[in-house]
Amino acid sequence: MIPFNRPPYTGQEDQYVQAAMRSAKMSGDGAFTERSHHWFREQLKCDSALLTPSGTQALEMAAILLDLEPGDEVIMPSYTFVSTANAFALRGAQIVFVDIRPDTMNIDENLIEAAITAKTRAIVVVHYAGVSCEMDPILALAERHGLKVIEDAAQGMMSTYKGRRLGAIGHLGAYSFHETKNYTSGGEGGLLIVNDPRYAQRAEIIREKGTNRSLFFRGMVDKYSWVDIGSSYLPSELQAAYLWGQLTMADEINRDRLATWNAYHAAFADLETSGLVVRPHVPEHCKHNGHMYQLKAKNLAERTALLKHLKDADILAVFHYVPLHSATAGRKYSRFHGEDRYTTAESERLIRLPFWYSMSPEIRQKVIDTVHSFYS
Ligand SMILES: *Cc1c(COP(=O)(O)O)cnc(C)c1O
Fold this sequence. Notes:
3-stranded antiparallel sheet, 14 helices, globular, binds pyridoxal-5'-phosphate
C-alpha cells in the first residue's frame, strides 16, 4: 500500500536525539530548545519563538495571551483543523465562521468585516496547504477595528507572503511539527511565534506554568514564583533534538517537497485543461512550501469514486476537513456568519494525494498514472 504520508526523516536526527539522551538535561528548555529558538528568531525575524509540545498547544497559548472573556468573538474559517477553533472555545470565546475562497481554500478576506461585532476580539487566519491568506487587507481591517490577528501557520513553515514568512506577520503565529507536517519534532510538536513585543514576556510565563522561571534563569529576578495563569507547554529535549536535525536540513526538505509538488502539478495540467479536475492555486505574491498536493473532483460522488479507484490500486489518498460549523461541538460553540457558498461544497470535492519528503519518482508516477486512468 502506498501510504498517504511518511514522517520526514533526514538521517541527521539520530545524532542529536542521542546527544539529548546522554545529556544531563532532558526536560524542556535545554540546549536543543535554545538552538531552535535562536534559529526561528533569526529566520522569522520575530520577537520570540517558543517550542511547544504540539501546534494545538501553541494555539492555546495564543488564546490565553488574548485575555478573552466569555462571549468574546473570534473570527476564522470553518474549513480548518479542530484545534484552530478549540483553542479559543476553551477560553470561553464564541467562534464566528466566515466562508472561504474557492481558489486557495483560505478565509475570504472580503467577508470578514461584515462579521465583526462589538464583541469581536481577533481574526484567526489559516494558511491552508502552506499558501498564504491575503494578509495586507486582513491586517488593515484588524487595525481599523482594534483586533488581533493570529496566524494558524501549522502548515506554513518556509512559506512567504510578499517576502514575509508565514506565522511572523500577524500579532501571534503557530506552527505544528506533527509528523504530517513538513518538519517534525519526533511525531508531535509546535511553535508559538510572538511578533508583538508586548506579548513576549507573558508568553514565557504562560509556558512555564504561570511562573517567572525564565526571568529567574536569566538573572532578572532573584526568585521565581506563581505570577499568572499558565500550563506546562515545554517540549522535552528529545523533541527539540529531533527537530534540530530537521532544521539543519530545512532548505533541502523544502526543495525536495517543491520538486514533488511541481511534478504533480505538471502531470495534471492536461486534466485541468480538459475541465476534469481543478489543481491548487498559488497567488503570484505567495511562495508556498509544497505542504500538500490536492485536486478537486467535480463533486462528492466523483471524489468518492476517485478515492476508491486509488484504493483499489493500493494508493491511500484522503479527503480533508469536514467543516467545523456542521460538527456536533461546532453547533454548540460557533455560528456561521453569512452564506456557506464554498466551505461545504468545495471541501466535498477535495482529495489529497500521497506526499512526503524524499518520495520516490516511481511512487509518484504510479499515483499520477492511476489518477489519469480514472479519467480516461
Ligand atoms: C496540524 C494542524 C494543527 C494542529 O497541530 P498539532 O501539532 O497536531 O496539534 C492546527 N491547525 C492546522 C491548520 C493544522 O494543520
